[in-house]
Design goal:
- This protein has a single domain, classed as Arc Repressor Mutant, subunit A, CATH 1.10.10.10.
- The protein has five helices and three strands.
- Strands 2-1-3 form a three-stranded antiparallel sheet.
- The longest helix has 17 residues.
Length: about 120
């Protein structure tokens, strides 16, 4: 039995140290991850950390990071939380789109017209 692959669940458990939730403030699928520091010791990071730092050189949504890592979302969130704790990435809520603001204005105008 030695030498057999322990399976994906054991590996995922090892990636997160058994944690199912990220440390710190919660973030959702559309939160934007950006690499902010390139000063790190690669030998201290796991391959998934290095991949995230490469992917997020350009601002990238959490969902896209998970897809590129080919890992479950909760595992990706733990990895991202660790990188945020170490000051290597930021995780920000997306800025509201101008289109959403315009839609709000249209609704207010429509409501005003109806009340006339």
């Amino acid at each position: 039995m030695t030498g057999e692959d322990p399976g994906p669940l054991v590996r995922l458990f090892g990636l997160t140290g058994g944690r199912a939730r990220p440390l710190g403030e919660a973030f959702d699928l559309v939160a934007i991850v950006t690499t902010v520091s390139t000063f790190y010791e690669p030998s201290e990071l796991i391959p998934e950390h290095l991949t995230v730092l490469s992917i997020c050189r350009r601002p990238t949504p959490v969902a896209d990071v998970a897809a590129q890592l080919k890992l479950p979302l909760n595992i990706t969130r733990v990895i991202l939380g660790d990188l945020r704790r170490d000051g290597l990435v930021t995780i920000d809520r997306p800025q509201p789109a101008a289109q959403a603001i315009d839609e709000r204005i249209y609704r207010e105008v429509l409501h005003g017209l109806r009340s006339l």
